[in-house]
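Let's practice the habit of predicting before peeking. Look at the sequence and jot down your guess about where helices and strands might fall. Then scroll down.
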Amino acid sequence: MAATIATECSLPKVEALAARDWSLTESQRYCRQLARGHYENFVVASLLLPRRMRQHFYNVYAYCRWSDDLADEAPDPSTSLRLLDWWEAELRACYQGIARHPVFVALAETIEIFAIPIEPLARLLTAFRRDQRQRAYASRADLLDYCTGSADPVGELILYLGKCHRDDTLRLSNSICTGLQLANFWQDVARDWQMGRRYLPDETLRQFGCDVAVFEQRRATPEFRAALAAEVEQAQSLLTSGLALVDLVPRELKLDVWLFAQGGLAVLQKIRDLNYDVWSRRPTVSKWRQLRMTARGWRLSRTGRLHGRTAA
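Done guessing? Here is the structure:
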């Protein structure tokens, strides 16, 4: 039932999905299947949660997955913008008690139980619209501002699910989420460039004497490596700073937070291992490494020894 969203990225098709009557049970199954069909840290970590919380994670994941795919899988930016407008209208209808799409039928229960405001959910869509209009970033500050919409709301939603949404936890969560987003950018420099996007800021390239032509040539010149290394260090700093969140969230969320951050740190290390040549090969963390990291975190969490300072 939860087919890949890419096959549904036209307005008539997504409207048709929302046109039929979805029961809560059917909608929850839809979100669950959609989440389990994507092998990502978010889903792997959610499987380690208490059973009572898993469905709510699936519901949040399904919303984020649909939002991202409507932005990236549509054939052109104008179609993406129309789809994102439609999706936001469905979100606002959900908050008015009129949930139609299966994701929102399931999410409505989560929103009510955990008192989730609309703002972080809507902020994601603002960032995805920005992606359709902005293809490069002049400064690091500009890029970090983008991350406040594209990444930070996901962590904020998790804090609501953990009933630990406070100023101190939000600050650390934002640090981890922005660091993760940046790690993803530096992992996918080649893929993003192929899609017409460049996240390495102009000011960083200028600082190290790197010409944009190296992107067109797909070359890891010394200047490119130096520019990317500087941004990798920025992402590393954000992730390590945010790890203190592990000590502030409920025990049932500690492992998830730790795994999210450690996964990002592992990606950054792989980029270093490749000497910043992300053109020749995409830096990925092996499934064996992911399994070892998960097993170590699980053992530490079971004995109460998992802390923000614990290394993978």
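How did you do? DSSP finds 16 helices and no strands in the chain.
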